[in-house]
Design a protein that fits this description.
This protein is an alpha+beta fold. Helices cover about 75% and strands about 10% of the residues.
């Protein structure tokens, strides 16, 4: 017990919302686990197996079989919820003794088509030194933490400790599944992977040694080459220094010449600037003169004064124009105000007309309502036979008196109907009371009769059961005596056998044999090591022969590889490298050179592509601008054509001005003729003479004809002609206004056509040409890229082959070295003992060890057979005691049953007499009930008919009364509202509004005439304003021309003063001298650049990966090679040591497991057809790799009878299968659960007969007894067999057991019970 503190134990389990356990807080179930035994019982389906499932889930995180899709969590449909949470908590002590709580939560959500289940939370809380520590992480980490805390592997938890009932027979499953589970239990997979990893790593290290050796050879050559390049670099740097000195001398001579040339260039630039400025001024002058000519042609009345006078005149005219515009805006504002006032009056007139119509309609309805009310009053008075109602037209007083009399009549009728209804209700209540009494008597008689009938039937059923039970019990007295005699004989035989067997002496002899076998095993191990050393030399000869064959094959492969590369190398290099030359280095250098050239071309291609993209974008932008300008130009042209037609702007303006002048003259003429004809008519009436010639008329008819003619023209022709002329004038003025507004657009159109569009067209064309040139260059670059990429691909395709050729050279050298090493091994070694002698001694030692092993097995068999016989006698005594107790109970029970049967017979006779008496009383009561029910139905029919008639008459009277009151209220409301006076006022307002509307119309017409006159004046003033603006523009341009001519004169004088002939000769002489020196400098720089290229090339070579730090890399590789060779040797030793350790561990464990299985089988199994069972592990060697074969185990369960061994799978009964699986699990738990004393058995008695159930109970009791001193040992048994629970309870190691129950429609519950509750 010195290591008990390292064992884990479980304390409590809480289940909520899992399977049949309810999700509510009050429905959660809690189990406390006892030590050493916890018993759980309950009916099938109550939820016992759920406890095992929860224990497995909380410890491993694995859900039970077939529980996907939400089956593990409580079904949401059962409680009418959308989601349900399942919670499992376990409180336990870990291996360090710390109190720990593991908590897992799942959620089940009801979706439209399925139930979705997911994990919500998982955590572990642990109390260490009084401090709480909590781990909340992913489920995988929680699972690993639980396994570490419990101290057992996941395989043991799944297959041994918490094995599910559906998987409890796995020890007898087919071979592949059985091997898989035993491999998990023994952790064979991990050890196998470790061996494979060691083997694979050793092979990798061997291959790396070959690679390192070849690399070392290359690094040595690179080191020598780097030293040679260092010397070359120093020579080239000296030559570069000489060239730099020469270049410095030349630069000092060129510098003063270049400064003088720069001064001459500056002077030339100034002259060029003057010439360019003169040209610009000449161009500007010509443009201004052209603009002056256009303005002069456009101006009709050219101004002759100064520009200041013209500006003053323009300002006065502009002020006058502003005043005219202000006046026009004021008249228009007044016109708007008048129009708005006229509109308001029209709206008021419309509203007044609507109000007038409404008031007339209301007056008409009022008169109709008064007539209708009076007719309704006279009709109702005739119906009620009321006199003195009044005349045909009633006054409000008469109407009020009539309504009072109608209300009095209605109340009288209501009181009468109420009294009749009360009489009928009183009669109904009397009849119903009598009926209730009769029904109560009838129900009591019927109930008494039924209860007595049920009592008779129940007593008869009980008497039949008692009779059957008495028949089954029999007397039993004789059998009891026989059992007592057998019990005495069995007890005596058991005592004699215990005295005869000395089990401790047999166990001491077995221990002595075990010590002797250990010494024999050590001797076998020593001899086996010596035999391995002798066999090593034999293997060396085989290895040497294999190396020579390998060398011959590689030489042939080297020859084939070089022949295959010859054509490609000649194509790329122009020659075939020598046998000692580094082909891989040559290929790498060629690849680097080609890659640099390709990079340069790609960079240039990228720059050209980028420039081409910019030009394309710029050209597209210029094209868009050109298209927009053209569209704008077309739109302006279309707008001008809409106004001017086919004519140009100036012609259209002149023609339109002529038309306006003609229209104004025509209008003025007609307007003046109206005044003329009016005066002429007045003169004719006054003087009776012709208004033109002032002569008198010869007759009255001539006078009348003249008057009619003048009147006709004055009243008909002129009023008709004036609006037509006015409309024509306004139309022409609008067109003239549009034409004037069009002038800025004409100027914009001209600028677009002559300047902007041509410039954009030239820009687009110039960019197109540049793009074509760049596209040609890009095409050439792409072709060059394709060529270089093709060569690079060929070089890279050949590099692996070149590397293989180099590696083959290295491999051949390595093989030569290995052959030398293996040959040297054959020269030494201890050969004093032969392999045959050592093998013979090894066989003798092995035979001795096997003989000792057989003796130990014989001793174990002897101990086991004695224990088996002793257990059989103990079971016989126990069985006879149970039979004796059962017979005694049966005799006592028979006496009680006979007395109870007599009591039941007497009770049956009494009940039958009382049933007959109640049947005679039922007839008269039923007849009286029928008579009273018919009388009650007649009273109800009479009451309903009377109520219906009274209700109809009262409702009709109430409706008439309400209609009269409603009409009276409406009449009164109309009279008091003053509607008649409102109608009169509305008529008066209607006349006033019609008068105001006429006045506003006259004022509106006057303002419209004034507006037209002002608009005409304003149009004429604007035309004059445009003419003044053009004159002002003309004078400004004339002044600007004079200024440009003055500046031109000054610039020409300055240009003549400077002169160019004075310094052109000097410039040419200095240029020739500078060119000569620059050529010398260029030659010197060319030499320097060539030498610097050699320096850079040499430096790049030294900076290349193959030469950079070549010395240190050579030294590092040498160290790496030696250490890797030593590691490879060590790995082979580790592999062999681990393989031997795994084999021995497996062998010892299997021996322990089979020993425990044999002891438990003998204690438990009561049949005689099988002596014992075993787990056989047949091993075989898998050939894989060069180190050695890997050992693989295949498992099977066998049954043994004497010397016969048979596979148990397929040959055993269901009960034997259950028992064998349980015993194997118990043995595995005893062997592997060193750190966790927990074991759960789920329905262990399935398919077992009574004898084997008792044997299993005895075996479990013995296990509990043996391990009861270990406080962490906990056995949990779940079964529906209450007899099995009682047998385990009699062991004295359990004071309580748990009962799991589940009623229909309810959730599972767990109750702790004492063993006295097993009978209930």
């Amino acid at each position: 017990h010195g290591h008990e503190w390292r064992m884990s134990s479980v304390d409590k389990l809480m289940i909520q919302g899992v399977r049949s356990f309810g999700p509510a807080d009050e429905q959660k179930a809690i189990i406390q686990f006892f030590s050493p035994l916890t018993l759980i019982t309950g009916q099938n389906g109550a939820g016992k197996t759920t406890i095992i499932e929860c224990m497995k889930y909380i410890t491993t995180g694995d859900l039970p079989p077939n529980s996907k899709g939400g089956a593990f969590v409580h079904d949401p449909k059962l409680i009418g919820e959308r989601e349900v949470k399942g919670v499992v908590k376990l409180r336990f002590k870990d291996m360090a003794g710390n109190l720990t709580v593991c908590h897992r939560m799942l959620q089940s959500v009801q979706k439209p088509r399925k139930i979705e289940q997911r994990t919500l939370d998982a955590s572990i809380e642990r109390i260490v030194d009084g401090t709480k520590r909590k781990i909340t992480s992913r489920c995988g980490e929680i699972d690993r933490e639980m396994i570490d805390s419990l101290g057992v592997s996941k395989a043991i938890l799944n297959h041994v400790i918490f094995c599910h009932q559906e998987e409890s027979h796995w020890p007898l499953s087919e071979g592949k599944a059985l091997k898989s589970k035993f491999d998990e239990i023994f952790a064979s997979t991990r050890y196998t992977k470790a061996l494979e990893s060691i083997k694979k790593f050793q092979q990798e290290q061997t291959h790396e040694c070959k690679v390192y050796d070849a690399e070392l050879h290359h690094l040595k050559k690179q080191k020598e080459k780097a030293e040679e390049l260092q010397g070359t670099l120093r020579d080239f740097q000296q030559k570069v220094d000489v060239s730099k000195a020469e270049i410095t001398r030349i630069k000092s001579e060129v510098s003063p010449l270049e400064e003088r040339l720069q001064e001459l260039n500056d002077m030339y630039e100034q002259v060029t600037t003057l010439e360019r400025r003169i040209a610009e001024l000449e161009s500007g002058k010509k443009e201004l003169k052209r603009s002056q000519d256009e303005l002069a042609r456009k101006i009709e009345h050219q101004f002759k004064g100064t520009i200041e006078e013209l500006r003053h005149l323009y300002e006065e005219h502009h002020s006058q124009l502003e005043r005219k515009g202000q006046e026009l805006r004021e008249v228009e504002r007044q016109h708007v105000t008048v129009c708005k006032g006229e509109e308001d009056i029209k709206n008021q007139l419309t509203d007044c007309l609507q109000e007038h119509g409404r008031l007339q309609t209301e007056d008409k309805h009022h008169r109709h309502r008064v007539q209708s009310r009076d007719r309704r009053i006279h009709t109702l008075a005739d119906q009620l036979k009321l006199e003195d109602v009044g005349s045909a037209s009633l006054s409000p007083r008469e109407v009020k008196d009539f309504l009072t009399r109608v209300a009095s009549v209605r109340k009288t009728k209501e009181e009468s109907a109420k009294q009749e209804k009360q009489n009928y209700v009183t009669r109904e209540r009397e009849l119903q009371s009598h009926l209730n009494d009769l029904h109560g008597n009838l129900a009591r008689l019927e109930q008494s009769r039924k209860m007595r009938g049920k009592t008779v039937e129940e007593n008869k059923r009980k008497m039949a059961e008692i009779s059957r039970e008495l028949a089954s019990l029999g007397s039993g007295g004789a059998a009891l005596g026989g059992i007592e005699r057998d019990l005495g004989n069995a007890t005596q035989e058991l005592s004699e056998h215990r005295a005869a067997v000395d089990v401790p002496a047999l166990e001491r002899a077995l221990a002595a044999l075990g010590e002797e076998k250990r010494r024999a095993d050590e001797r076998v191990s020593v001899l086996q090591g010596e035999l391995d050393r002798i066999s090593q030399q034999s293997r060396t000869w085989g290895a040497l022969e294999a190396l020579r064959r390998d060398k011959s094959g590689k030489e042939e492969q080297y020859q084939n590889e070089t022949e295959a590369l010859e054509a490609e190398l000649l194509s790329l290099m122009g020659c075939m490298p020598g046998a000692e030359e580094n082909l891989e280095g040559r290929m790498t250098e060629m690849e680097r050179s080609k890659a640099q050239e390709l990079k340069r071309i790609v960079e240039q291609f990228r720059k050209d592509s980028s420039q081409l993209s910019r030009l394309t974008a710029q050209r597209e932008e210029a094209t868009k601008q050109l298209s927009a300008k053209r569209n704008k130009m077309e739109a302006l042209q279309a707008e001008v054509e809409d106004v001017c037609g086919d004519s140009n702007y100036e012609e259209a303006a002149e023609r339109l001005q002529e038309q306006v002048d003609t229209a104004m003259e025509d209008y003025s003429t007609v307007k003046g003729s109206q005044s003329f004809f009016r005066r002429s008519l007045e003169k004719v009436h006054a003087t009776k003479k012709c208004p033109l010639c002032t002569r008198g008329f010869s007759s009255d008819s001539g006078l009348e004809l003249t008057i009619r003619s003048i009147t006709s023209r004055l009243n008909e022709s002129i009023p008709k002609l004036l609006p037509q002329l006015n409309d024509k004038l306004q139309s022409l003025q609008e067109k003239q206004k549009l034409l004037q507004q069009l002038r800025p657009k004409i100027e914009e159109l001209t600028h677009l056509r002559t300047v902007e569009v041509p410039e954009l067209e030239s820009v687009v064309e110039e960019r197109r040409k540049r793009m074509e040139a760049l596209q040609q260059e890009a095409k050439k670059a792409e072709e060059e890229q394709s060529r270089l990429r093709s060569e690079l691909e060929r070089i890279r395709a050949l590099q692996p082959k070149a590397m293989r050729v180099s590696q083959l050279q290295i491999s051949l050298k390595e093989l030569d070295q290995k052959i030398s090493v293996e040959s040297s091994k054959l020269g030494g070694g201890d050969t004093s003992r032969s392999q045959v002698t050592v093998r013979r001694e090894l066989q003798d030692a092995q035979m001795k060890a096997d003989e000792l092993n057989r003796k130990m097995d014989h001793k174990r068999q002897e101990i086991s057979s004695n224990q088996q016989a002793l257990h059989q006698l103990e079971n016989t005594v126990h069985s006879l005691k149970e039979q004796k107790l059962k017979l005694q109970e049966r005799l006592q029970k028979r006496q009680g049953l006979v007395a109870k049967k007599g009591e039941l017979a007497a009770e049956i006779d009494t009940c039958e007499r009382e049933i007959k008496t109640d049947a005679h009383k039922l007839g008269p009561v039923q007849d009286k009930i029928s008579q009273l029910e018919e009388e009650k139905r007649q009273v109800i029919r009479d009451r309903e008919e009377t109520e219906a008639l009274n209700r109809v008459e009262i409702d009709r009277l109430r409706a008439s009364e309400a209609a009269i009151q409603e009409d009276t209220q409406l009449i009164k409301r109309y009279t008091s509202s003053g509607a008649e006076s409102a109608l009169q006022r509305c008529v008066e307002r209607l006349g006033e509004l019609q008068r105001q509307s006429g006045e506003r119309g006259q004022e509106k017409r006057e303002l419209e005439e004034r507006t037209k006159a002002l608009q005409k004046q304003l149009a004429n003033a604007k035309v004059r304003e445009h003419e003044l603006e053009d004159n002002l523009q003309l004078l400004r341009q004339q002044r600007e021309v004079q200024e440009k001519e003055a500046e031109l004169q000054r610039l020409r004088e300055d240009l003549r003063r400077r002169g160019l002939d004075s310094y052109e000769d000097e410039y040419r002489r200095l240029q020739r001298e500078t060119d000569r020196l620059r050529k010398e400098q260029a030659r010197a720089e060319g030499h320097k650049l060539g030498q610097e290229d050699q320096v850079r090339h040499t430096q790049r070579e030294l900076q290349a990966d193959i030469y950079k730090e070549a010395d240190s890399r050579h030294r590092d590789m040498l160290i790496t090679l030696r250490t890797t060779q030593m590691a490879t040797t060590d790995l082979e030793k580790y592999y062999k040591a681990l393989d031997r350790a795994i084999t021995r561990y497996h062998k010892l464990k299997m021996e322990d497991i089979n020993k425990i299985i044999k002891e438990l089988w003998i204690k438990t199994y009561r049949g005689g057809d099988i002596d014992t069972i075993e787990i056989r592990s047949d091993d075989e060697m898998e050939e894989s790799g060069t180190i050695r074969a890997r050992r693989v185990y295949h498992y099977r369960v066998v049954m043994i009878k004497g010397e016969t061994v048979l596979d148990m799978r397929g040959r055993c009964s269901a009960g034997q299968k259950v028992l064998a699986s349980l015993i194997i699990r118990l043995a595995l738990a005893e062997t592997f659960c060193i750190n966790c004393g927990l074991l759960a058995l789920d329905e262990p008695t399935t398919n077992l007969d009574r004898e084997n159930v008792e044997g299993l109970a005895q075996a479990l009791a013995d296990i509990v007894k043996e391990r009861s001193q270990q406080k962490n040992f906990q056995l949990m048994v779940i079964t529906h067999d209450e007899a099995f629970v009682e047998l385990l309870g009699h062991s004295g190691y359990a004071d309580w057991f748990y009962r799991v129950s589940k009623e229909v429609g309810e959730c599972s519950r767990i109750r702790r019970c004492s063993f006295s509750g097993l009978d209930h």
